[in-house]
């Protein structure tokens, strides 16, 4: 998964105001809703080189939101003597925020927090939060910063790690670029500015942007027979979750990228198609994949978690795999169509009365059986690869072609015999004999 924003900015407070291409070192500070990334770049003659990266896939605006929700839940319980944490409306604001069960609460909370970025205090009001009780609270920026200070300070750790990994001093960083809505929090900006000894931050272009992450490649699993079944298709927006019940053999996988594997054991012996295995693929907003499997008969379970840094492909690898898949898919289709056309044409040929009557019964039966077997193989192997279709074509041709060739040769000899018995044509030239001295 990848998200891109292109920034163009210039040096501030400079008479020459050169473009970004002349900036030697830039630190990108990307603090969004669910993840946090820091990148250190050097730029020379238009070439951007990433010197180091760091981050936290579980740090972002949602963490600050949930911290505040916990604070307000305690305040509600204290004021009303009710357990508001069980309210579906309140839960949607906090631990199940991504499900957006209560749009009105979300909008009010967003407006309240946004206001606090520019003022010292904000208020939040929710009608009938729990059992008909309204909720009202005032929140100061100081209180907000106190409740989240450990998380804000945690944002500085990847910055330090980036500089250490790149073996650079913070004084060599010419510009700090802020990316993501959470970087508008004044305390985050202050900590970052203090870390870089008062350096002015590039924050004038920070905007609210909705970035929809997707899965760059299809996700699936291998079952008996080495076949792949896709559960989550390429370019599906995340977070997403997909379940499927497997009752028999499915798909093919040898050319795909292995992210991880686990074995679901303890499935009792049974006829094909009888065991029912429920497989679930669940990708969260941070791109972390959880795969689980359960035998519905025995209750046996197993699962695996695939993080972003475990076996994931680079952007270039993903593009290469997509291009190769499209190329091979076209080749597979060509060979499949060739085999299909040959089989049906051969069947139509021997069913033609003029040709069928010239074939011995045994040869005709042999072709019919071979063609029928090839067609059934095609029906059951639609996902086969080009070389498999080609092998099947050669196998079918090796049976049919000699029989058809023999038939045409026999027909040719009969026609030639009829010509030998016929009288010479009048005026026809016979053999010419020349004498040579």
Describe the structure.
- The chain is of the alpha+beta class and 437 residues long.
- Among the domains are: 88 residues, ATPase, substrate binding domain, subdomain 4 (Actin, Chain A, domain 4, Alpha-Beta Complex), CATH 3.90.640; 94 residues, Substrate Binding Domain Of DNAk, Chain A, domain 1; 104 residues, Substrate Binding Domain Of Dnak, Chain:A, Domain 2 (Up-down Bundle), CATH 1.20.1270.
- The chain is 39% helix and 20% strand.
- It has a four-stranded mixed β-sheet with strand order 3-2-1-6, with helices on one face. A four-stranded antiparallel β-sheet has the order 9-10-11-12, with no helix packed on it.
- α7 runs parallel beside α10.
- The N terminus and C terminus are likely disordered.
Summarize the structure.
This protein has 437 residues and is an alpha+beta fold. The protein is built from ten helices and twelve strands.
Helix content: 25-40%
Distance between the termini: 91 Å
Q: What fraction of the residues are assigned to beta strands by DSSP?
A: 15-25%
How would a crystallographer describe the biggest sheet? 4 strands, mixed
Strand order of the largest sheet: 3-2-1-6
Q: Tell me the Rg in angstroms.
A: 36 Å
Structural class: alpha+beta
Averaged pLDDT: 70
CATH architecture of one domain: Up-down Bundle
Family: Belongs to the heat shock protein 70 family.
GO biological process, one term: response to stress
Keywords: ATP-binding, Nucleotide-binding, Stress response
GO molecular function, one term: ATP binding
């Amino acid at each position: 998964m990848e998200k891109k924003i292109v920034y163009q900015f210039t040096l501030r407070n400079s008479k020459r105001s050169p473009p970004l291409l002349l900036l030697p070192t830039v630190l990108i500070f990307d603090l969004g809703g669910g993840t946090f990334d820091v990148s250190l770049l050097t730029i020379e003659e238009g070439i951007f080189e990433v010197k180091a990266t760091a981050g936290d896939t579980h740090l972002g605006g949602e963490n600050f939101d949930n911290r505040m929700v916990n604070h307000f839940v305690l305040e509600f319980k204290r004021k009303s003597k009710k357990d508001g944490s069980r309210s579906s409306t309140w839960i949607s604001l906090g631990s199940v925020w991504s499900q957006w069960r209560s749009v009105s609460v979300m909008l009010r909370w967003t407006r309240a927090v946004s206001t606090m970025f520019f003022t010292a205090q904000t208020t939040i009001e929710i009608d009938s939060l729990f059992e008909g009780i309204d909720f009202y609270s005032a929140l100061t920026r100081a209180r907000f910063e106190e409740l989240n200070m450990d998380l804000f300070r945690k944002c500085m750790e990847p910055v330090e790690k980036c500089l250490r990994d790149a073996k650079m001093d913070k004084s060599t960083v010419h510009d700090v670029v802020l990316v993501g809505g959470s970087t508008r929090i004044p305390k985050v900006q202050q900590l970052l500015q203090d870390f870089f000894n008062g350096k002015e931050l590039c924050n004038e272009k920070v905007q609210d942007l909705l970035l929809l992450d997707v899965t760059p490649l299809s996700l699936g699993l291998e079952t008996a027979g080495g076949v792949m079944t896709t559960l989550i298709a390429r370019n599906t927006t995340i977070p997403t979750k997909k379940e499927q019940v497997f009752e028999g053999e499915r798909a093919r996988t040898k050319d795909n990228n292995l992210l991880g594997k686990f074995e679901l054991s303890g499935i009792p012996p049974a006829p094909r198609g009888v065991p029912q295995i429920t497989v679930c693929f669940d990708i969260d907003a941070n791109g972390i994949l959880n795969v689980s499997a359960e035998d519905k008969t025995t209750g046996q379970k197993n699962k695996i978690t695939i993080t972003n840094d475990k076996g994931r492909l680079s952007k270039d690898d993903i593009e290469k795999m997509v291009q190769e898949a499209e190329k091979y898919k076209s080749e597979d289709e060509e060979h499949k169509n060739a085999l299909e056309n040959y089989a049906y044409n051969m069947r139509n040929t021997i069913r033609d009365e003029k040709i069928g009557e010239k074939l011995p019964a045994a040869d005709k039966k042999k072709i019919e059986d071979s063609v029928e077997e090839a067609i059934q193989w095609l029906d059951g192997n639609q996902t086969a690869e080009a070389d498999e279709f080609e092998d099947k074509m050669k196998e079918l041709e090796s049976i049919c072609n000699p029989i058809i060739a023999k038939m045409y040769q026999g027909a040719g000899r009969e026609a030639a015999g009829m010509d030998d018995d016929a009288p010479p044509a009048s005026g026809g030239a016979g053999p010419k004999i020349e004498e040579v001295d």
